[in-house]
Amino acid sequence: MNNIGHFAASLMAFIWPKVFFDFATKRMDVLVSPIPILQLINLFLATVILAWEWPLNVIAWSHSEQSIISRLLILPLTSMISLLIYQATDVALYYLVGFTIYLWAYRCGEKIPLEWW
Asked: Crossing angle for the helix pair 68-82 and 37-53, nearest 10 degrees?
């Protein structure tokens, strides 16, 4: 459900553009106001994560979908970028929790199975 929350938060950021750190400085408002740069990046990453977690038959069981290392690479990046918009700050924390769980599983030698149970 976190993926749908990120997708919805990135869509809501188009309607109410706000940077999370605008209480400290107004310099980052350029990223959301005239051209919705952060909103587009968040919408793209939310779509990628959504397609990754709920794959279609085309990408299901592909190498990148089964790789824990690729998830360890994209989750911190997605968390950092989603932390910048106000609507997705809770999603960023959930991505960090997911990253921690994947890192723990990777260090314990966990593998994603080739077939369903």
From this structure: 150
pLDDT block averages, 10 residues each, the chain of length 117? 82 84 73 84 90 71 71 90 88 92 90 66
Q: What angle do CA 101, 58, 43 make, to 5 degrees?
A: 60
Separation CA 1–CA 10 (nearest Å): 14
| Reported pTM | 0.79
Question: Can you tell me the distance from the alpha carbon of 11 to that of 57, in angstroms, rounded to the nearest whole number?
Answer: 26
How far apart, in whole angstroms, are the C-alpha atoms of residue 29 and residue 21? Answer: 9
- The rounded Cα 71 to chain-centroid distance in angstroms is 10
The two structure tokens encoding residue 91 = 């999603």
Instruction: Work out the burial of residue 65: count CB atoms within 10 Å of its CB; fewer than 13 is exposed, 13-18 middle, 19 or more buried.
Output: middle
